[in-house]
Amino acid sequence: MLAAVNNFLKYVDDLVWGVPLIVAILLTGIYLTIRLKGIQITKLPKALKYMFENEESGHGEVTSFGALCTALSATIGTGNIVGVATAIVAGGPGALFWMEIAALFGMATKYSEGLLAIKYRTTDKHGHILGGPFYYIENGMGKQWRWLWTWLAKIFAFFGMGVGLFGIGTFTQVNGITSAVGNFFDPNAQNVIHLLGRDYTLAVVISGLILTVCVGLVVIGGLKRIAKVSEIVVPFMAVIYITISLLLLILNAGKIPAAVAEIVSSAFGMRAAAGGALGAIIVAMQKGIARGIFSNEAGLGSAPIAAAAAQTKEPARQGLVTMTGTFIDTIVVCTMTGLSIVITGSWNIGLEGVAVTTNAFQHGLPFAPQVSAFLLMMCLVFFAFTTILGWDYYSERCLAYLSGSNKTALKIFRWLYIAAVFIGPYFTVSAVWVIADIFNALMAIPNLIALLSLSGVVVAETQSYLKRMNLTRVK
Predict the structure, then answer these.
(1) What integer pLDDT is reported at residue 424 of this predicted model?
(2) Checking phi first, is residue 63 left (phi over 0); if not, alpha (psi -120 to 50) or beta?
(3) Distance separating alpha carbons of residues 66 and 87, to the nearest angstrom
(4) How far apart are CA 164 and CA 183, in angstroms?
(5) Containing H/E element for 200?
(6) Rounded to whole angstroms, how far apart are CA atoms 81 and 357?
(7) What confidence category does residue 35 fall into, taking pLDDT thresholds of 50, 70 and 90?
(8) 472: which residues sit within 8 A by CB, 6+ positions away?
(9) Mean pLDDT score of the chain
(10) Helix 94-119 and helix 429-453, axial crossing angle in degrees, nearest 10
(11) pLDDT higher than 90, residue 8
(12) How many Å apart are CA 55 and CA 169, to the nearest integer?
């Protein structure tokens, strides 16, 4: 029965994450990059500066930095540690190349999402800021065919809620945390408990229970508590992880050129058997882009939900801040993880999930294996924990849109979310990631339609802002 379910999920995953959607995501990013004249490159220094400069007169619920940290809390998670490893194991080192290409163009996508989130956000009767793809789909795409846009917005909100409850927000993060804790404290599975027809280590069960309690305590506090926790945890753990990864790369600097060559050659199927090059390229693209989207969420429409709450009066300014999330998440963090895995060769020795990255850190760092494993485990635990919190907020905003901010529905959902965290450790790694991929794809489609339809608005707002700020114009 389990095998049949896994086979069905794989079939659906291959269907929704086939060539058409991969091309659609890439072309959307390329199209926006061209129309915005490479704003993700030319204005990146300004965007990084804006990260730490909050607007004093801006209107919103949290600071721009707080909104970014909330978005980063949802993006920097298991995708950066486990997702990269899973992509490289399944698609070869070339998957990292396509992950980076998707991220580069995805920065233009993320910029557009952040801009539209501010432009079309609204305020409810309680004074709460409401924004995200469902609002720029419904309110931005014109009065003609409004019923169609409303349904498209509802479809996005439904799948967005599903991504949080069944995909990125819960199962993958919890599974990554408990697997890492279990592998560290009981790698040989000496202390096990028989549950649901399978054996689980005591470390997995206990860590799952502790995580559930911690998530429950924060989630009940809403956006401001989530943002407050994220502003502390995300920068702290990101700096630690980047420092550790940099140390690994510096100590193995001599192997980096060969690793880069292997990544590029694998990306274009140069090492595939005769006649298999095209297939190898497609697999590398599919796994790299899917995991990249999972990690940085460019095109999914999740980040603008957090961006809409930022204290700002300039849509384009928040767009610049929002796009730095993709840069930090993928261009910086995922690249470091991927290079570490390729340099140490841990991707092709039969390991799976977090064990791949753990092996890379154990062999690439000058510490005792247990120390390296502990450092990685702690980074993964905190990254994944904040992702769970961030996606709870996203999911609640999606439900609020669908239910008209029904308080009873939101309370029930929070308990369902906590329940999903509780059962997360007991799903297999492969099934968890496949479910996440499926929901990601279904969530992305309505958002991509809106981004392409509203690209003229994005360009006009950008041109107006850059002109007023005495920066280079975008035509």
Answers:
(1) 77
(2) beta
(3) 30
(4) 26
(5) strand 198-201
(6) 7
(7) very high
(8) 42, 466
(9) 82
(10) 50
(11) no
(12) 30
